[in-house]
Amino acid sequence: GKDTNGMNLLVREGLAVMVGGELLDNEELKDALGGMITDMLDIEVSVNELKPANNKNLGKEGVIKLGLKALGFLPVTGDLIITDTKETKDGEIERGIFIDIEDANPLGALVKLLAFPMDMSMPIELDMVELISGFLGGGGDETLVKYIFPNLYGLPEEMPDPDPDTSLGEVAYTAIGGGLYVADGADVDIDPSGNAIFPDVSLFELPESLDLDKIRPDETYNMGLAFSQYNLSQVLGALVDGLEIPISNPLILAEIPIAIPDLSNTSPGTSQKLVISLNPNGIVLDLRASVPRLMANDVCIQYIQGADAMWEMSLDISLILDIGLTIKDVEGVAHIFLDLNLEPQSEYIHTHVMWDNMGIGWFDHSDFADILVTALPDMLGDGTGGPLYSVDLSGLGMMPKGSDPGIIDYGDGSCFLKLALESFDVAGLLGDEGLTCFINTATAF
Fold first, then answer.
1. For 98-151, what is each residue's pLDDT tens digit?
2. Rounded distance between C-alpha atoms, residue 356 and residue 97, angstroms
3. Does the pTM of the predicted model rise above 0.85?
4. Which of 138, 36, 56 minimizes the C-alpha distance to 97?
5. Please, are residues 151 and 179 in contact by the beta-carbon 8 Å criterion?
6. Contact 17, 398 (CB under 8 A)
7. d(Cα 328, Cα 369) in Å, to the nearest integer?
8. Segment (H or E) for 407
9. Over residues 70-96, mean pLDDT
C-alpha cells in the first residue's frame, strides 16, 4: 500500500461488483442484512424487499432499493446511496463505506434523519502468522496483524434504466465499485468503539479503467466481478510485508536433496527447516494477456539445521496461473470451487546463492526453484491429482444455480468473473465463519 516515498496509495477503482435483481431477492441475503441493520440501529428490523434501485430519472444516486419493517410493523422504504467518503463537521474528509437514503417514504425520512448517513466500514483483520501456520500445520507465538479495508461506492451511472412496464428484478442489476487497501496493524488507529479507522491515503489512478461490460449480469449469469492487477498486486505485497514463512514439513524438505545433493548427508535427528520471506515490492500479478502470470522477485530462502543458518538463496520466480471454476459435490450439495495450479516459467526463474556456510555453491542450483515449484502439486495437493489450492466459494456463501460454475477471463490488466448463483449469503463472506471457512477449505501445506 506504499510507494517508494512511503506514501499510502489507494487504488480506488480496483474492483467492481454487479449483482442481478434475481440474486438480491433471496432470503439469506435479506436475513443477513436485517441482522446487520438491527445491530447498528439497536432496534428489531426485518428486510422484506431488496432489489436494484430504479435510476430512470437523472440525478439519482441510489443503487439498492430497500424495504424493511422496524419493530415488526413499521414500514420503511428508500434507495440506498453508497459512497466512500464524507465530510466531517471540521471540514475533513473521512474515508470508509457510508450509506444514505433517497426517495424514502415518510417513515424512511424519519429514520434517515435519526440514523443516516450510516458508517458501515468493515475492515477484515488478519493475523498473517496465524493464517500461514494454519496452512503449514504449525504454530507460533508471534503475530503480524493486517487490516484489509474495503473502499466501496455505488455506480448508479453503470446501472440500466429499467422499462417501467417490466418487473424491475428481472432486468436490472446493481453496480458497486471500489478497491481494497491493506494496512499494518501497528499503523491503524482504533476509535473509542473499538472500530479500526481507515488510514489517510492518497489516490492512485489506474492507467486504464475496468471494462465493466464484461461483467454485466444477463440471462445466464447474475453476478459479475472485476479486479485490477494493480490492486491485487498491491494487496498481495502488503499482506506478505514483514512475514517469514517457516517450513519444516518433511514432504517439502525431502525435495531439497534433489536440487542440492549435499543435504542428503544431514545427521540423523537434526532438525531442518526453510524460512521464506518475500519482497513486498517484488510481487506483480500480470493480467494483461489471456494467461495470467505471477512474478515474485527477490524471494529469500534460508536453510536452517538445528539452530544454525547454513545458507541463503534469492530467487526470481515467474509462474503461470491456471485458475478455474468447478462444481463439486459436498455431502450431497453442489458447491462452486475456485481451483489453482501453478506452472513455472523456467526461462524467467533465476537463483542466486547470497551466502553459504555449507559448501553448496559449487553444486548446480540453477533449477532449485523450478524443481520445488514443479513438485508443489504432489507435495501440497490432495494426493488425487487435484489442484494445488482450492477454495470452496459456496462455503463463503455463494451457492450455484445449476451445473455451470461460471467463467473467468483476463485481459487489459484485469480479471473478470461471471457466476450463476442461486443465492449469496453475505454473512458467509464477511463474518468470522467466512474467514474460517476460507482458511479451512484451502488445501493445507
1. 888 888 888 777 777 666 767 766 788 888 877 776 555 455 557 888 899 999
2. 51
3. no
4. 36
5. yes
6. no
7. 32
8. strand 407-411
9. 82
